Automatic annotation (TrEMBL), chain B:
Belongs to the binding-protein-dependent transport system permease family. HisMQ subfamily. Residues 1-12 have a biased composition (Basic and acidic residues). Keywords: Amino-acid transport, Cell membrane, Membrane, Transmembrane, Transmembrane helix, Transport. Signal peptide: none annotated. Residues 91-284 form the ABC transmembrane type-1 domain. It is a multi-pass membrane protein. It holds the Pfam family BPD_transp_1. InterPro entries: AA_ABC_transptr_permease_3TM, ArtM/GltK/GlnP/TcyL/YhdX-like, MetI-like, MetI-like_sf. It comes from the Bacteria. It is found in: Cell membrane. PANTHER family: GLUTAMINE TRANSPORT SYSTEM PERMEASE PROTEIN GLNP, MEMBRANE COMPONENT OF AMINO ACID ABC TRANSPORTER. This is Amino acid ABC transporter permease. The chain crosses the membrane at residues 42-62, 95-115, 136-156, 266-284.
């Protein structure tokens, strides 16, 4: 496929995203401490952990929506936490999908999707719209291109938000609890999309409470606890043989309620 | 691709000519008959009560002890006919003032509002200046502002500064109203949830692009009703430029009154102003209702 979202492979692809000793505070509260992370090309990293453990903050730091206090972050080997770097240019290479969709309510779905390609990447309107419609078609939203977000179901809105993030052909996709606001019967249609993106080789980092899904899809799982990556490993290892007591206790809640 | 599955749409209108053998039930027909009768009765009651109220008002005014004097000084058809063309001429000035000042007010108000929301320490002076401007001109009574600008500026006898009362009056109106409108815009900008800006920035849009394509369109849309409201006020207040001697509708009426000692021309001018404002007020109502409807989507209450 010509538009493989991960971009062409180079001889030695280093990690797409690398975080080293990242520290982040909000006023008095320490939210991320000594966080290290490496995300290899075409892999999926799942961030799990209790609410408030710092998953969203980690993703927002990776996208420079938050400024880190200490440590460093690299995107494709380039240090993006260097103050001289053009932050807008960095964000252009990273797609983000939020829990609350955050579609622009005053724009149709197609306008939402073509905004960044047209305004940021200078793609001519006709071309941007054609590609937008193709992507919508692929995600089963072809008929909704001209609808406004408030006329879409939650699942459709979230899929539209994914298309919007994909429309700029990002190098890396960050997904922050993208099914948390959805009714249970709509979760599957969104997860299906993510599964499909993985098949196409998209590099993704996702914060999620869908443990079964994380187990199925993730190459790497990181368990965050109070701002620290307490444990990391393959999905197999984390879900079947967690080393840390806290990880076990966290996962037991899901096994007990039959969600894992 | 495995995902190309279009789900069937719920809640879309039935295809025209589709085979839907639906026949309205007797219950539905009865319900609709009842609603029709009820609304007919409501209209009749409203019409009757309006009529009674109007009649009562007319009786009270006409039977007032001073009514014959009042009728002569305020409702003289002869003076009305004499005043109408002159007042209309003056009104043209009010309309032009409204158009020019209205445009200037919208532009200036937007600039001030945006200046107030610029982030970062670099823009502190601009933010402070914009805040001081709005505080000052929102607090200053318009009439005093007008007197200072229209009467005070010419008294300075500055070289190259206009003494044209229309220009100066328009300037004063613009100064005051752009402060009001800036606050309306600012409230709109602040009502757009920060997550919208975050979403825009995460797509790689610059701060400016996010403001221009995502924040401002939503802010302006939400603030159309209060903006129109301010424009209606501005339209009325264009009459105040007459204090500098500009011959607008009010001043034109004034001239005739001064000569004839009959107040009918004021009434003519007043009615013309009202006539001018009504379309704008109706437009405001319509826009507000439409916005409310959109917001209340999905509910009858
Ligand atoms: N903008 C902010 N200001 C202050 N505290 C914040 C802010 N954002 C997040 N936090 C705090 O940081 C911690 C981690 O939050 P978050 O990253 O949202 O966790 P998670 O996504 O894992 O639920 C929480 O204690 C939260 O209250
Ligand atoms: Mg979160």
């Amino acid at each position: 496929m010509s538009d493989r979202p991960g971009g062409p492979d180079t001889a030695d692809p280093g990690p797409v995203l690398r975080m080293r000793s990242v520290r982040k505070t909000f006023g008095e509260s320490l939210v991320l401490r000594e966080v290290d992370l490496e995300v290899a090309p075409h892999t999926v990293t799942a961030l799990i952990g209790a609410s408030g453990s710092g998953k969203s903050t980690l993703l927002r730091c990776a996208n420079l929506l938050e400024e880190i206090d200490d440590g460093a972050i690299w995107l494709d080997g380039e240090e993006i936490t260097d103050p001289r770097v053009d932050q807008d240019a960095v964000r252009r290479r990273i797609g983000v999908v939020f829990q609350a969709y955050n579609l622009f309510p005053h724009m149709s779905v197609l306008e939402n999707i073509t905004l960044a390609p047209r305004r940021v990447h200078g793609v001519p309107r006709a071309e941007a719209e054609q590609r937008g419609r193709e992507l919508l078609e692929r995600l089963g939203l072809g008929a909704k291109a001209d609808a406004y977000p408030d006329r879409l179901s939650g699942g459709q809105q979230q899929r539209a938000a994914i298309v919007r993030a994909l429309a700029v052909r990002p190098r890396l996709l960050l997904l922050d609890e993208i099914t948390a606001a959805l009714d249970p019967e709509l979760v599957a249609e969104v997860l299906e999309v993510v599964r499909d993106l993985k098949e196409q080789g998209m590099t993704m980092v996702l914060a999620t409470h869908e443990m079964a899904f994380a187990r199925d899809i993730a190459d790497q799982v990181c368990f965050l606890d109070a701002g620290v990556v307490l444990e990391r490993g393959s999905a197999e290892q984390i879900f079947h043989a967690p080393r840390e007591e806290r990880t076990r206790r966290f996962l037991r809640r899901f096994t007990d309620s039959g969600r894992l | 691709m495995t995902l190309a599955k279009e789900e069937p749409d719920r809640g879309e209108p039935l295809a025209p000519g589709g085979q839907d053998p639906y026949v309205p039930s007797e219950r539905r027909l009865a319900r609709e008959r009842y609603k029709r009768t009820r609304s007919r009765r409501a209209v009749a009651v409203a019409a009757l009560s309006s009529l009674v109220t109007a009649a009562a008002l007319v009786l009270v005014v006409v039977n007032a002890p001073g009514w014959s004097r009042t009728r002569e000084t305020f409702f003289d058809a002869g003076y009305a006919r004499e005043a109408l063309p002159l007042v209309l001429d003056g009104l043209w000035l009010n309309v032009r003032l409204l158009l020019v000042c209205g445009a200037a007010v919208l532009v200036l108000g937007m600039l001030i509002a945006v200046a107030r929301t610029l982030p970062g320490p670099v823009f502190f002076p601009l933010r402070a200046l914009a805040a001081a401007y709005t505080d000052f001109f929102r607090g200053l009574p318009l009439i005093i502002n007008l007197m200072i600008v229209v009467l005070g500026v010419p008294a300075l006898r500055l070289q190259g500064v206009s003494v044209d009362p229309v220009l100066l009056g328009g300037t004063a109106l613009t100064l005051t109203y752009s402060a009001y409108v800036a606050e309306v815009f600012r409230a709109g900008i602040e009502s757009v949830h920060p997550s919208q800006r975050a979403a825009a920035r995460s797509l790689g849009l610059t701060n400016r692009q996010a403001l221009r394509h995502v924040v401002l369109p939503q802010a302006v849309r939400r603030q159309v009703p209060p903006l129109l409201n301010d424009l209606v006020s501005l339209q009325k207040d264009t009459g105040l430029v007459s204090i500098g001697g500009a011959v607008d509708a009010v001043r034109a009426a004034d001239i005739i009154v001064g000569r004839s000692l009959n107040y009918t021309p004021y009434l003519v001018a007043g009615l013309l102003f009202i006539a001018l404002t009504i379309p704008m007020t109706r437009l405001t109502d319509w826009v507000t209702a439409r916005t409310d409807r959109r917001r209340a989507q999905g509910g009858l209450l």
